[in-house]
Protein backbone atom coordinates (compact mmCIF):
# COMPACT_ATOMS: atom_id res chain seq x y z
CA UNK A 1 0.00 0.00 0.00
CA UNK A 2 1.23 3.48 -0.84
CA UNK A 3 1.42 6.36 1.68
CA UNK A 4 3.18 9.71 1.73
CA UNK A 5 4.69 9.09 5.16
CA UNK A 6 5.29 6.01 7.30
CA UNK A 7 6.01 6.63 10.98
CA UNK A 8 7.48 3.70 12.94
CA UNK A 9 6.70 3.90 16.67
CA UNK A 10 3.39 5.09 18.10
CA UNK A 11 4.89 6.64 21.22
CA UNK A 12 5.14 10.30 22.18
CA UNK A 13 7.19 11.54 19.20
CA UNK A 14 5.58 9.24 16.62
CA UNK A 15 2.03 10.26 17.56
CA UNK A 16 2.91 13.96 17.45
CA UNK A 17 4.63 13.56 14.07
CA UNK A 18 1.83 11.47 12.54
CA UNK A 19 -0.85 13.94 13.71
CA UNK A 20 1.10 16.94 12.40
CA UNK A 21 1.82 15.38 9.01
CA UNK A 22 -1.75 14.06 8.70
CA UNK A 23 -3.22 17.47 9.45
CA UNK A 24 -1.02 18.92 6.70
CA UNK A 25 -2.84 16.62 4.31
CA UNK A 26 -0.17 13.92 4.08
CA UNK A 27 -1.39 10.31 3.88
CA UNK A 28 0.21 8.81 6.99
CA UNK A 29 0.66 5.24 8.20
CA UNK A 30 1.67 4.83 11.86
CA UNK A 31 3.09 1.41 12.79
CA UNK A 32 3.95 -0.10 16.17
CA UNK A 33 4.78 -3.62 17.28
CA UNK A 34 3.18 -3.18 20.70
CA UNK A 35 -0.43 -4.04 21.50
CA UNK A 36 -1.12 -0.77 23.31
CA UNK A 37 -0.51 2.77 22.22
CA UNK A 38 2.17 4.89 23.92
CA UNK A 39 2.84 2.74 26.94
CA UNK A 40 5.58 5.08 28.18
CA UNK A 41 3.18 8.00 28.28
CA UNK A 42 0.80 5.81 30.27
CA UNK A 43 3.35 4.96 32.98
CA UNK A 44 5.01 8.37 33.01
CA UNK A 45 4.99 10.80 35.90
CA UNK A 46 3.64 8.15 38.26
CA UNK A 47 0.58 7.78 35.98
CA UNK A 48 -0.02 11.52 35.64
CA UNK A 49 2.42 12.31 32.82
CA UNK A 50 4.79 15.18 33.47
CA UNK A 51 4.09 16.29 29.90
CA UNK A 52 6.34 19.34 29.65
CA UNK A 53 8.48 21.78 31.56
CA UNK A 54 7.89 25.52 31.44
CA UNK A 55 11.65 26.09 31.51
CA UNK A 56 12.62 23.73 28.66
CA UNK A 57 15.71 25.27 27.06
CA UNK A 58 18.58 23.79 25.08
CA UNK A 59 20.83 23.74 28.14
CA UNK A 60 18.51 21.29 29.93
CA UNK A 61 19.50 18.62 27.40
CA UNK A 62 22.59 16.43 27.02
CA UNK A 63 23.93 15.73 23.55
CA UNK A 64 27.27 15.61 21.74
CA UNK A 65 25.96 18.85 20.18
CA UNK A 66 24.08 20.67 22.98
CA UNK A 67 22.81 23.29 20.49
CA UNK A 68 21.14 20.78 18.18
CA UNK A 69 17.79 20.82 20.02
CA UNK A 70 17.47 24.63 19.89
CA UNK A 71 15.69 24.79 16.54
CA UNK A 72 13.02 22.15 17.29
CA UNK A 73 12.38 23.58 20.78
CA UNK A 74 11.87 27.02 19.19
CA UNK A 75 9.61 25.68 16.42
CA UNK A 76 7.35 23.88 18.92
CA UNK A 77 7.51 25.23 22.46
CA UNK A 78 6.06 24.08 25.80
CA UNK A 79 3.40 26.79 25.29
CA UNK A 80 2.37 25.17 21.99
CA UNK A 81 1.85 21.83 23.70
CA UNK A 82 0.03 23.47 26.62
CA UNK A 83 -2.29 25.13 24.10
CA UNK A 84 -3.15 21.70 22.69
CA UNK A 85 -3.74 20.31 26.18
CA UNK A 86 -6.07 23.24 26.95
CA UNK A 87 -7.88 22.85 23.62
CA UNK A 88 -8.71 19.29 24.70
CA UNK A 89 -9.94 20.47 28.09
CA UNK A 90 -7.30 18.54 30.02
CA UNK A 91 -6.68 19.83 33.53
CA UNK A 92 -3.07 20.23 34.63
CA UNK A 93 -0.98 21.74 37.39
CA UNK A 94 2.62 22.72 38.08
CA UNK A 95 4.09 20.40 40.70
CA UNK A 96 7.47 22.12 41.13
CA UNK A 97 10.30 23.60 39.08
CA UNK A 98 8.10 24.21 36.02
CA UNK A 99 7.01 20.57 35.81
CA UNK A 100 3.46 20.28 34.42
CA UNK A 101 1.39 17.20 35.27
CA UNK A 102 -2.14 16.11 34.30
CA UNK A 103 -4.72 16.49 37.05
CA UNK A 104 -6.16 13.14 35.97
CA UNK A 105 -4.37 10.17 34.42
CA UNK A 106 -1.82 10.10 31.60
CA UNK A 107 -4.49 8.42 29.44
CA UNK A 108 -5.85 11.89 28.77
CA UNK A 109 -2.65 12.80 26.88
CA UNK A 110 -2.72 9.53 24.92
CA UNK A 111 -6.39 10.09 24.02
CA UNK A 112 -5.60 13.66 22.97
CA UNK A 113 -2.80 12.57 20.61
CA UNK A 114 -4.93 9.73 19.29
CA UNK A 115 -7.71 12.22 18.54
CA UNK A 116 -5.22 14.56 16.81
CA UNK A 117 -4.13 11.61 14.65
CA UNK A 118 -7.77 10.85 13.85
CA UNK A 119 -8.25 14.48 12.77
CA UNK A 120 -5.26 14.02 10.48
CA UNK A 121 -6.73 10.84 8.99
CA UNK A 122 -3.76 8.77 10.19
CA UNK A 123 -3.98 5.06 9.43
CA UNK A 124 -2.65 3.28 12.54
CA UNK A 125 -1.65 -0.37 12.82
CA UNK A 126 -0.55 -1.85 16.13
CA UNK A 127 0.99 -5.31 16.72
CA UNK A 128 2.87 -5.01 13.45
CA UNK A 129 6.38 -6.43 13.22
CA UNK A 130 8.57 -4.71 10.69
CA UNK A 131 10.65 -7.31 8.90
CA UNK A 132 12.61 -5.31 6.36
CA UNK A 133 13.15 -1.69 5.36
CA UNK A 134 14.69 -0.84 2.01
CA UNK A 135 15.31 2.27 0.01
CA UNK A 136 13.82 2.68 -3.44
CA UNK A 137 14.20 5.31 -6.12
CA UNK A 138 11.18 7.29 -4.89
CA UNK A 139 11.21 6.52 -1.17
CA UNK A 140 11.12 3.54 1.18
CA UNK A 141 9.59 0.06 1.13
CA UNK A 142 8.63 -1.80 4.28
CA UNK A 143 7.89 -5.48 4.62
CA UNK A 144 5.82 -6.06 7.72
CA UNK A 145 3.85 -9.00 9.01
CA UNK A 146 0.66 -7.12 8.06
CA UNK A 147 1.70 -6.48 4.45
CA UNK A 148 4.05 -4.35 2.34
CA UNK A 149 3.99 -0.56 2.52
CA UNK A 150 5.64 2.21 0.54
CA UNK A 151 6.13 5.91 1.22
CA UNK A 152 8.27 8.83 0.13
CA UNK A 153 9.14 9.65 3.75
CA UNK A 154 10.03 7.34 6.61
CA UNK A 155 10.07 8.63 10.20
CA UNK A 156 11.76 6.54 12.88
CA UNK A 157 10.30 7.16 16.35
CA UNK A 158 11.06 3.88 18.11
CA UNK A 159 12.44 5.44 21.29
CA UNK A 160 15.28 4.22 23.49
CA UNK A 161 16.16 1.02 25.31
CA UNK A 162 14.66 1.65 28.72
CA UNK A 163 11.92 -0.60 30.09
CA UNK A 164 12.22 -3.40 27.52
CA UNK A 165 9.27 -5.15 29.22
CA UNK A 166 6.89 -2.62 27.62
CA UNK A 167 8.20 -2.73 24.10
CA UNK A 168 11.56 -0.92 23.88
CA UNK A 169 13.80 -2.32 21.13
CA UNK A 170 17.06 -1.28 19.44
CA UNK A 171 15.20 -1.11 16.11
CA UNK A 172 15.79 2.61 15.50
CA UNK A 173 19.52 2.36 16.18
CA UNK A 174 19.83 -0.65 13.88
CA UNK A 175 17.97 1.16 11.13
CA UNK A 176 20.27 4.17 11.50
CA UNK A 177 23.26 1.85 11.09
CA UNK A 178 21.65 0.18 8.08
CA UNK A 179 21.55 3.60 6.40
CA UNK A 180 25.11 4.43 7.44
CA UNK A 181 24.23 6.97 10.17
CA UNK A 182 26.59 7.23 13.14
CA UNK A 183 25.49 6.48 16.71
CA UNK A 184 26.91 7.96 19.89
CA UNK A 185 27.45 5.53 22.80
CA UNK A 186 24.23 4.37 24.51
CA UNK A 187 23.84 4.19 28.29
CA UNK A 188 20.93 4.12 30.74
CA UNK A 189 20.18 7.58 32.17
CA UNK A 190 17.81 9.08 34.75
CA UNK A 191 18.54 5.86 36.60
CA UNK A 192 19.23 4.84 40.22
CA UNK A 193 22.90 4.29 41.10
CA UNK A 194 24.13 1.18 42.90
CA UNK A 195 26.78 0.85 45.61
CA UNK A 196 29.51 -1.74 46.17
CA UNK A 197 28.38 -4.53 48.48
CA UNK A 198 29.92 -3.12 51.65
CA UNK A 199 28.41 0.34 51.12
CA UNK A 200 25.07 -1.17 50.10
CA UNK A 201 25.05 -3.30 53.26
CA UNK A 202 26.00 -0.33 55.43
CA UNK A 203 23.16 1.80 54.04
CA UNK A 204 20.55 -0.96 53.53
CA UNK A 205 18.89 -0.21 56.89
CA UNK A 206 18.33 3.33 55.56
CA UNK A 207 16.25 2.17 52.59
CA UNK A 208 13.35 4.60 52.29
CA UNK A 209 15.15 7.56 53.92
CA UNK A 210 14.96 10.73 51.83
CA UNK A 211 17.01 13.91 52.27
CA UNK A 212 17.45 17.15 50.35
CA UNK A 213 20.99 17.39 48.98
CA UNK A 214 23.05 18.85 46.21
CA UNK A 215 24.28 15.90 44.13
CA UNK A 216 27.35 16.34 41.94
CA UNK A 217 28.97 14.10 39.32
CA UNK A 218 31.00 15.28 36.36
CA UNK A 219 29.38 18.48 35.08
CA UNK A 220 26.03 17.61 36.71
CA UNK A 221 24.93 19.47 39.84
CA UNK A 222 21.35 19.17 41.10
CA UNK A 223 19.61 20.33 44.24
CA UNK A 224 16.80 17.83 44.95
CA UNK A 225 16.04 14.84 47.16
CA UNK A 226 18.15 11.70 47.42
CA UNK A 227 16.43 8.45 48.36
CA UNK A 228 18.38 5.58 49.91
CA UNK A 229 17.48 2.16 48.50
CA UNK A 230 18.52 -1.42 49.28
CA UNK A 231 21.02 -1.27 46.42
CA UNK A 232 22.31 2.31 46.57
CA UNK A 233 20.69 5.69 45.91
CA UNK A 234 17.80 7.01 43.87
CA UNK A 235 15.41 9.99 44.05
CA UNK A 236 15.32 13.03 41.74
CA UNK A 237 18.79 14.35 42.67
CA UNK A 238 20.38 11.02 41.79
CA UNK A 239 18.33 10.38 38.64
CA UNK A 240 19.35 13.82 37.39
CA UNK A 241 23.02 13.44 38.16
CA UNK A 242 23.10 9.84 36.81
CA UNK A 243 23.02 11.29 33.28
CA UNK A 244 26.40 12.90 34.01
CA UNK A 245 27.88 10.01 36.00
CA UNK A 246 30.22 7.57 34.30
CA UNK A 247 31.69 4.32 35.61
CA UNK A 248 34.62 5.00 37.91
CA UNK A 249 33.39 8.48 38.84
CA UNK A 250 32.82 9.55 42.41
CA UNK A 251 29.41 10.85 43.41
CA UNK A 252 29.56 13.82 45.75
CA UNK A 253 26.65 14.85 47.94
CA UNK A 254 26.35 18.11 49.84
CA UNK A 255 24.29 16.83 52.75
CA UNK A 256 23.70 20.31 54.22
CA UNK A 257 23.15 22.44 51.10
CA UNK A 258 21.55 25.32 53.04
CA UNK A 259 24.01 25.55 55.91
CA UNK A 260 27.57 26.52 56.63
CA UNK A 261 28.62 23.38 58.50
CA UNK A 262 31.96 24.79 59.71
CA UNK A 263 30.35 27.79 61.44
CA UNK A 264 27.53 25.66 62.79
CA UNK A 265 29.98 23.18 64.36
CA UNK A 266 32.03 26.09 65.70
CA UNK A 267 28.98 27.58 67.42
CA UNK A 268 28.14 24.23 69.00
CA UNK A 269 31.72 23.44 70.02
CA UNK A 270 31.05 23.19 73.75
CA UNK A 271 27.73 21.35 73.55
CA UNK A 272 27.01 18.07 75.35
CA UNK A 273 24.63 17.12 72.55
CA UNK A 274 25.34 14.11 70.35
CA UNK A 275 26.13 15.23 66.78
CA UNK A 276 23.47 12.81 65.50
CA UNK A 277 20.81 14.58 67.63
CA UNK A 278 22.01 18.06 66.67
CA UNK A 279 21.69 17.25 62.97
CA UNK A 280 17.93 16.87 63.46
CA UNK A 281 17.96 20.70 63.22
CA UNK A 282 18.46 20.25 59.47
CA UNK A 283 15.67 17.71 59.12
CA UNK A 284 18.04 14.72 59.13
CA UNK A 285 16.20 11.53 60.13
CA UNK A 286 17.88 10.20 63.29
CA UNK A 287 18.64 6.76 61.84
CA UNK A 288 20.36 8.39 58.88
CA UNK A 289 22.42 10.67 61.12
CA UNK A 290 23.51 7.74 63.30
CA UNK A 291 24.39 5.45 60.39
CA UNK A 292 26.25 8.17 58.48
CA UNK A 293 28.26 9.35 61.50
CA UNK A 294 29.06 5.75 62.44
CA UNK A 295 30.55 5.20 58.99
CA UNK A 296 32.50 8.44 59.27
CA UNK A 297 33.82 7.28 62.67
CA UNK A 298 32.38 10.41 64.23
CA UNK A 299 29.39 9.41 66.33
CA UNK A 300 30.22 11.49 69.41
CA UNK A 301 29.27 14.56 71.43
CA UNK A 302 29.86 17.96 69.85
CA UNK A 303 32.21 19.00 72.65
CA UNK A 304 34.45 15.97 71.96
CA UNK A 305 35.37 17.15 68.47
CA UNK A 306 38.79 18.77 68.12
CA UNK A 307 38.98 21.91 65.90
CA UNK A 308 40.61 19.77 63.19
CA UNK A 309 37.85 17.14 63.45
CA UNK A 310 35.24 19.90 63.20
CA UNK A 311 36.76 21.11 59.95
CA UNK A 312 37.03 17.58 58.55
CA UNK A 313 33.41 16.83 59.46
CA UNK A 314 32.23 20.09 57.88
CA UNK A 315 34.06 19.20 54.68
CA UNK A 316 32.44 15.77 54.54
CA UNK A 317 28.99 17.18 55.29
CA UNK A 318 29.31 19.46 52.28
CA UNK A 319 31.07 16.93 50.08
CA UNK A 320 30.33 13.35 51.09
CA UNK A 321 32.02 11.18 48.50
CA UNK A 322 30.83 7.74 47.58
CA UNK A 323 31.78 5.62 44.58
CA UNK A 324 28.82 3.92 42.92
CA UNK A 325 29.68 0.68 41.14
CA UNK A 326 27.02 1.04 38.45
CA UNK A 327 23.42 1.83 37.65
CA UNK A 328 20.24 -0.21 37.86
CA UNK A 329 20.31 -0.43 34.05
CA UNK A 330 17.66 -0.15 31.37
CA UNK A 331 15.09 -2.00 33.50
CA UNK A 332 14.90 1.02 35.80
CA UNK A 333 16.19 3.87 33.60
CA UNK A 334 13.73 6.48 32.37
CA UNK A 335 15.73 7.17 29.23
CA UNK A 336 18.69 6.20 27.06
CA UNK A 337 21.57 8.62 26.84
CA UNK A 338 23.10 8.84 23.35
CA UNK A 339 21.59 7.70 20.08
CA UNK A 340 21.54 8.70 16.42
CA UNK A 341 24.29 11.27 16.06
CA UNK A 342 23.01 14.80 15.61
CA UNK A 343 25.81 15.26 13.06
CA UNK A 344 23.81 13.01 10.73
CA UNK A 345 20.57 15.04 11.03
CA UNK A 346 19.26 18.47 10.13
CA UNK A 347 18.27 20.29 13.32
CA UNK A 348 15.63 22.25 11.35
CA UNK A 349 13.81 19.22 9.92
CA UNK A 350 15.17 16.12 11.71
CA UNK A 351 15.91 14.58 8.30
CA UNK A 352 19.07 12.57 7.73
CA UNK A 353 21.44 14.74 5.71
CA UNK A 354 22.67 11.85 3.61
CA UNK A 355 19.33 10.03 3.17
CA UNK A 356 16.61 12.36 1.89
CA UNK A 357 13.17 11.36 3.21
CA UNK A 358 14.50 9.51 6.30
CA UNK A 359 13.78 11.19 9.66
CA UNK A 360 14.70 10.33 13.28
CA UNK A 361 12.79 11.88 16.20
CA UNK A 362 12.38 11.58 19.96
CA UNK A 363 14.55 9.53 22.25
CA UNK A 364 16.27 7.53 19.49
CA UNK A 365 18.23 10.72 18.71
CA UNK A 366 21.26 11.76 20.78
CA UNK A 367 19.28 14.38 22.75
CA UNK A 368 18.46 13.54 26.38
CA UNK A 369 16.59 15.84 28.70
CA UNK A 370 16.76 16.31 32.43
CA UNK A 371 14.12 14.78 34.64
CA UNK A 372 10.94 16.87 34.81
CA UNK A 373 9.02 16.89 31.51
CA UNK A 374 11.99 17.78 29.31
CA UNK A 375 12.05 14.46 27.48
CA UNK A 376 8.41 14.64 26.45
CA UNK A 377 8.94 18.22 25.28
CA UNK A 378 11.77 16.95 23.07
CA UNK A 379 9.45 14.22 21.72
CA UNK A 380 6.71 16.81 20.94
CA UNK A 381 9.13 19.34 19.42
CA UNK A 382 11.13 16.91 17.27
CA UNK A 383 7.92 15.08 16.30
CA UNK A 384 6.24 18.31 15.23
CA UNK A 385 9.25 19.48 13.23
CA UNK A 386 9.52 16.20 11.32
CA UNK A 387 5.73 16.21 10.85
CA UNK A 388 6.02 19.60 9.15
CA UNK A 389 8.75 18.48 6.77
CA UNK A 390 8.08 14.81 5.95
P1 LIG B 1 8.54 6.07 23.13
O1 LIG B 1 9.29 5.05 23.92
O2 LIG B 1 7.51 6.88 23.78
O3 LIG B 1 7.84 5.35 21.89
C1 LIG B 1 8.52 4.41 21.08
C2 LIG B 1 7.48 3.53 20.41
O4 LIG B 1 8.15 2.73 19.45
C3 LIG B 1 6.79 2.58 21.38
O5 LIG B 1 5.40 2.64 21.21
C4 LIG B 1 7.34 1.21 20.99
O6 LIG B 1 6.40 0.15 21.16
C5 LIG B 1 7.66 1.42 19.52
N1 LIG B 1 8.68 0.50 19.02
C6 LIG B 1 9.86 0.20 19.58
N2 LIG B 1 10.50 -0.72 18.82
C7 LIG B 1 9.70 -0.98 17.77
C8 LIG B 1 9.81 -1.85 16.66
N3 LIG B 1 10.87 -2.64 16.50
N4 LIG B 1 8.80 -1.89 15.78
C9 LIG B 1 7.70 -1.11 15.93
N5 LIG B 1 7.53 -0.27 16.97
C10 LIG B 1 8.53 -0.21 17.89
N6 LIG B 1 9.54 11.93 30.31
C11 LIG B 1 8.96 13.11 30.64
O7 LIG B 1 9.21 14.11 29.98
N7 LIG B 1 8.08 13.18 31.70
C12 LIG B 1 7.77 12.08 32.45
O8 LIG B 1 6.92 12.15 33.34
C13 LIG B 1 8.41 10.86 32.13
N8 LIG B 1 8.20 9.76 32.91
C14 LIG B 1 8.78 8.56 32.56
C15 LIG B 1 8.58 7.44 33.37
C16 LIG B 1 9.14 6.23 33.03
C17 LIG B 1 8.95 5.04 33.92
C18 LIG B 1 9.92 6.12 31.85
C19 LIG B 1 10.52 4.81 31.42
C20 LIG B 1 10.15 7.24 31.06
C21 LIG B 1 9.59 8.48 31.41
N9 LIG B 1 9.83 9.62 30.65
C22 LIG B 1 9.26 10.80 31.02
C23 LIG B 1 10.63 9.57 29.40
C24 LIG B 1 9.67 9.51 28.20
O9 LIG B 1 8.74 8.46 28.40
C25 LIG B 1 10.44 9.26 26.90
O10 LIG B 1 11.51 10.15 26.79
C26 LIG B 1 9.51 9.41 25.71
O11 LIG B 1 8.46 8.47 25.79
C27 LIG B 1 10.26 9.20 24.40
O12 LIG B 1 9.34 9.31 23.35
P2 LIG B 1 9.59 8.51 22.01
O13 LIG B 1 8.35 8.67 21.20
O14 LIG B 1 10.89 8.83 21.42
O15 LIG B 1 9.67 6.96 22.46
Automatic annotation (TrEMBL):
Stretches assigned to the RsdA/BaiN/AoA(So)-like insert domain: 188-335
Swiss-Prot/TrEMBL keywords: FAD, Flavoprotein
Domain annotation RsdA/BaiN/AoA(So)-like Rossmann fold-like: ranges: 4-388
Coiled coil: none
UniProt-listed Gene3D superfamilies: FAD/NAD(P)-binding domain, HI0933 insert domain-like, Translation factors
Cofactor requirement: FAD
Lineage top rank: taxon: Bacteria
InterPro entries in the cross-refs: BaiN-like, BaiN-like_dom_sf, FAD/NAD-bd_sf, RsdA/BaiN/AoA(So)-like_dom, RsdA/BaiN/AoA(So)_Rossmann
Protein name: NAD(P)/FAD-dependent oxidoreductase
Provenance organism: Chromobacterium rhizoryzae
Amino acid sequence: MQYDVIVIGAGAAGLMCAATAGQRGRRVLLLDHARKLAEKIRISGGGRCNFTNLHARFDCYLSANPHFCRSALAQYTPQDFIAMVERHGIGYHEKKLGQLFCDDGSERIIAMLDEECRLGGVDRRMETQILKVSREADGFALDADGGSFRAASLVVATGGLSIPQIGATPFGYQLAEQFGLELTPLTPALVPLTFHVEDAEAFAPLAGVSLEVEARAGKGRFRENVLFTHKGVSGPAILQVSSYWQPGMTLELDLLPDADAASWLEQKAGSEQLISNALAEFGWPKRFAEAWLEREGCNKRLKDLSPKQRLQLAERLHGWRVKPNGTQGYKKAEVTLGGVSTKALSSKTMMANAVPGLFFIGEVVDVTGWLGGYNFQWAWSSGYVAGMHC
